[in-house]
C-alpha cells in the first residue's frame, strides 16, 4: 500500500509513519509537510534514508503539488493541521487555511485521482464541553474555540464530500494524545520540560479541567485499524476512558521528575476553556476490535523517560519562534493571574 501522509513531520504524523514502516514491510510512504513551527525533520531522522519513505516539503493547499503526488497513492491520511488551541486564540487565520481549506483541497484530489480512501484525523474538541456522560459519533458539534471550530468545519466538509460525490473518506475524533516527539507547547511535554529544568508549571484556572488521554502508540494502532478495515463515510471516536484532571497530571509529572508542589503556578484560565471532554469509543472496539494497550500511568512514565533521554531533540526546539510564543502567551496568562 502506498500512503500519502500529510503533516507527517508533526508529533502524531511522524509517530504514524514510523509505526507503518516498522509494522508493514510492503508499505510505501510519501510525507507531505509544510514544516511550520511544529513540523520537524528530526522527528523522522531515523527513517529518512528508508527506501520506502519519501519526504516532500509543501502545503496541502498547493493543489498542483497535491495533484502531482497522487498517482499510485492508495490512501491519504491527513494529519496536517494547526493544532494548538492557545495559538488559535491569538491568531486564528492559519487554522482556517490548514484545517478547512486544506481539507477541501485534499478531498478534491482524492476524488479526482480515485484514491481508495482518505482518513481525516480530527478531535473530540468538535463536540465542545461535555458536562456529563460521553459523546458518541452522532453527538452534535458544539465547537467553542477557533481551533475546534476550524476542525469541525473540516469534518463537515468530509461528510459533505462523501454524501455529494461519494468520496471515500473516514473521519476520526480522538482524545488528547501524548508521547515521544510531542511538541513542548502542549500540557504534558511543556510541564515535563519545565519541571526537568526546575521551573514552574502554569496551570490554567483551578486545574480541574478534565481531558481523556491516549498514548501515541495506541493512537497509531487505532488509525491503522481504521485505515485498513474501517468503513468509508463513517466516523470513529478514538478514546481510552482514562479521564484525568489537569492538576492530577501535574502532580504525577512532579512525582516522575522528582520535584515538589511549589512548582505549581496557577495562572489565568484559557478563554473559553472547555471544562471536560469524554468520548464514547465503543464503536471502534466493537467493529474493528481495537483496544488501548498502554495505561495512562505507564504512558506518562515512558514519555517522561523519553524526554529525559532525548535532550538533543528538544533543546533546539526551545529557541527562536518557540520562546517568542511562550513569552508572549504566558506573559498575558501570568499578568492576569491575580484574577484566578
Ligand atoms: O482533545 C484533543 C485535543 O487535545 C487536540 O485536538 C488538540 O490539537 C490538542 O492541542 C489538545 O488540545 P488541549 O487544549 O486539550 O491540549 P493542551 O495540551 O493545550 O491542554 C491540555 C489541558 O491542559 C487543557 O485543559 C489546558 C491545560 N493547560 C495547557 C497548557 C499548555 C494548562 O493548564 N496549562 C498550560 O500551559
TrEMBL record:
**What domain of life does the UniProt record list for this protein's source?**
Bacteria
Chemical reaction(s) catalysed: dTDP-alpha-D-glucose = dTDP-4-dehydro-6-deoxy-alpha-D-glucose + H2O
User: Which parts of the sequence belong to the NAD(P)-binding domain?
Assistant: 4-302
Name the Enzyme Commission number(s) assigned to this protein: 4.2.1.46
Lineage, opening ranks? Bacteria, Candidatus Uhriibacteriota
Q: Tell me one GO molecular function of this protein.
A: dTDP-glucose 4,6-dehydratase activity
GO process annotations (BP): nucleotide-sugar metabolic process
What is this protein identified as?
A: dTDP-glucose 4,6-dehydratase
Q: Which family does it belong to?
A: Belongs to the NAD(P)-dependent epimerase/dehydratase family. dTDP-glucose dehydratase subfamily.
InterPro entries recorded? dTDP_Gluc_deHydtase, NAD(P)-bd_dom, NAD(P)-bd_dom_sf
Cofactor(s) it depends on: NAD(+)
Is Lyase one of the keywords UniProt gives this record?
yes
UniProt keyword annotations, A-Z: Lyase, NAD
Amino acid at each position: 500500500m502506498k500512503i500519502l501522509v500529510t503533516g507527517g513531520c508533526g508529533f502524531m504524523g511522524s509517530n504514524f509513519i514510523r509505526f507503518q514502516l516498522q509494522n508493514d514491510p510492503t508499505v510505501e510512504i510519501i510525507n507531505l509537510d509544510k514544516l511550520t513551527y511544529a513540523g520537524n525533520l528530526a522527528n523522522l531522522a531515523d527513517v529518512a534514508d528508508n527506501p520506502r519513505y519519501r519526504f516532500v516539503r509543501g502545503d496541502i493547499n498547493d493543489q498542483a503539488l497535491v495533484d502531482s503526488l497522487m498517482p499510485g497513492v492508495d490512501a491519504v491520511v491527513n494529519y496536517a493541521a494547526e493544532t494548538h488551541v492557545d495559538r488559535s486564540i491569538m491568531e486564528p487565520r492559519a487554522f482556517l487555511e490548514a484545517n478547512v481549506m486544506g481539507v477541501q483541497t485534499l478531498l478534491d484530489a482524492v476524488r479526482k485521482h480515485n484514491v481508495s480512501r482518505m482518513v481525516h484525523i480530527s478531535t473530540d474538541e468538535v463536540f465542545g464541553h461535555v458536562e456529563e456522560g460521553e459523546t458518541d459519533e452522532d453527538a452534535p458539534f458544539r465547537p467553542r474555540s477557533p481551533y475546534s471550530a476550524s476542525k469541525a468545519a473540516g469534518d463537515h466538509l468530509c461528510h459533505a464530500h462523501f454524501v455529494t460525490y461519494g468520496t471515500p473518506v473516514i473521519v476520526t475524533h480522538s482524545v488528547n494524545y501524548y508521547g515521544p516527539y510531542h511538541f513542548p507547547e502542549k500540557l504534558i511535554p511543556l510541564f515535563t520540560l519545565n519541571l526537568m529544568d526546575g521551573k514552574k508549571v502554569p496551570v490554567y484556572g483551578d486545574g480541574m479541567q478534565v481531558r481523556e488521554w491516549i498514548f501515541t502508540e495506541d493512537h497509531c494502532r487505532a488509525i491503522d485499524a481504521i485505515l485498513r478495515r474501517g468503513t468509508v463515510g463513517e466516523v470513529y471516536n478514538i478514546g481510552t476512558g482514562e479521564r484525568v484532571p489537569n492538576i492530577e497530571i501535574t502532580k504525577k509529572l512532579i512525582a516522575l521528575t522528582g520535584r515538589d508542589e511549589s512548582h505549581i503556578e496557577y495562572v489565568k484560565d484559557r478563554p473559553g476553556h472547555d471544562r471536560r471532554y469524554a468520548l464514547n469509543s465503543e464503536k471502534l472496539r466493537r467493529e474493528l476490535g481495537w483496544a488501548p494497550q498502554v495505561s495512562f500511568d505507564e504512558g506518562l512514565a515512558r514519555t517522561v523517560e523519553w524526554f529525559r533521554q532525548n535532550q538533543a531533540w528538544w533543546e533546539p526546539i526551545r529557541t527562536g519562534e518557540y520562546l517568542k510564543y511562550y513569552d508572549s502567551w504566558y506573559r498575558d496568562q501570568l499578568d492576569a493571574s491575580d484574577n484566578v
